[in-house]
Amino acid sequence: MSHEVRTPMNAIMGFSELLRNENLSPEKRKEYINIIGQSSTNLLNIIEDVLRISSIETGQEKINKEECTLRELMSVLELQFRKKAEQKNLDFTIDIATDDEIVFLTDKTKLTQILANLLSNALKFTLKGFIRFGCRVENNYLHFYVEDSGIGISTEHIDRIFERFYQVETYLTRNYDGTGLGLSISKAYAEMLGGTLRVESTPGKGSVFHVLIPYLPEGRNLKEENDRKSLIPPAGNALVLLVEDDEYNYLLVKEMLSRTSLIMQRVTTGEEAVDICRKERNVRLVLMDIKLPGMDGFEATRMIRKMRNDLPIVALTAYAMPEDEEKAHLAGCSDYLSKPLDRGQLFRVLQKYLD
Q1: What fold characterizes domain 231-354?
Q2: Backbone phi, then psi, for 109, in 5-degree steps?
Q3: Which residues are registered as beta bridge partners of 130?
Q4: Which residues of the chain form CATH 3.40.50.2300?
Q5: Looking at the chain, which residues constitute the CATH 1.10.287.130 domain(s)?
Q6: Predicted pLDDT at 163
Q7: Which residues have CB under 8 Å from 60's CB, separation 6+?
Q8: Nearest to 113 by CA among 48, 163, 54
Q9: What is the DSSP letter of 294?
Q10: In the predicted model, is pLDDT for residue 332 greater than 80?
Q11: Mean pLDDT on 183-202
Q12: Nearest partner of 310 among 285, 328, 329, judged by Cα
């Protein structure tokens, strides 16, 4: 498990250090920033998967469907893995067997994690040759595949590789890093998405992992409209109350809203939030952190609801488990955003309640 955490952390720390070089070209600086951002996302996904595996096994994990663009999804993964493949002198190819823009409905986070796990394994177990990453439409399914010319898997082990913590052979544990969680999580996620994950493999020649998920081509126009809206700052000069005790999170939200005409007021405790909402009737929306000193965000929300039942309150918190979202809604929150905060999601929520 330590390696899985160290890999993105090393990238974050290493490229952050490289950014200190004042002589970096703009292109290099942008490249390093992109790597840091992607590595941060990878680290967050790893931590969340470790936390959620028990949630998967107890049936508490939820599916959050959203519209996803196939070419964009695969391009992001290509950007993440191509350079790693080239560093190992592997031929990395990507194939999308259609010229159409495929927009489909799925849990984008879970599908990305499935494919990232498979590509990561292909890189890990392929010393020379190639990795092929592709997708084609088959009836009502999207058929993703990751093929490699790696070490392969013997027949005696192939039926067990999706078991939790299972390592194929002792020598693999010595020579290859891994936690044994990736494939079990990927299979569980594929089934939760209404699809399947299977493998074909020949020892010494390589493996092909196949992921089939339902193809629900819904809402292309809605996708384009949402993308357009997410780039447009909310209009008006409404007063938004930010309840946030962490200085860095405050500065992030402040910067995100700096190009809007919204007025933001910040408090750091639940008690202050209740007091402001009692006195300032012109507060139009509350961004409520949950983990606060003294009165937490849930209790503050309940107290505000007693005074102003119509006031939109959006939970803005690092608590990202499905049950935490449910708790937020039960406490009276109108909506829920998990950290790290995405600007597009924040703008969509603000437009929803302020337009």
Answers
A1: Rossmann fold (3.40.50)
A2: -65, -45
A3: 91
A4: 231-354
A5: 1-59
A6: 74
A7: 322, 323
A8: 48
A9: S
A10: yes
A11: 91
A12: 285
- Per-residue confidence (pLDDT) for residue 43, from 0 to 100: 84
Give the tokens for residue 172. 């693999």
pTM value surpassing 0.90 = no
20: DSSP letter:
T
Domain covering 62-214: architecture: 2-Layer Sandwich (3.30)
Number of neighbouring beta carbons within 10 Å of residue 61: 18
**Residue with more model confidence, 325 or 312:** 312
Max CA separation in the chain (angstroms): 72
In sign, the C-alpha dihedral spanning 233, 234, 236, 239 is negative
CA distance to 79, 85, 145, 183, per residue, from 125 (Å):
20, 11, 16, 14
Give the residue carrying structure tokens 């937490």: 296
Query: 83-87, 136-140, 169-173: which range is least confident on average?
Result: 169-173
In sequence order, what are the residues at sequence separation of 6 or more whose Cβ sits closer than 8 angstroms to the Cβ of residue 206? 126, 129, 147, 148, 149, 150, 151, 152
Which pair of tokens denotes residue 55? 């949630």
Q: Where does residue 132 fall: left (phi above 0), alpha (psi -120 to 50 degrees), or beta otherwise?
A: beta
Fold assignment, 1-59: Helix Hairpins (1.10.287)
217 within 8 A of 103, measured Cβ to Cβ: yes
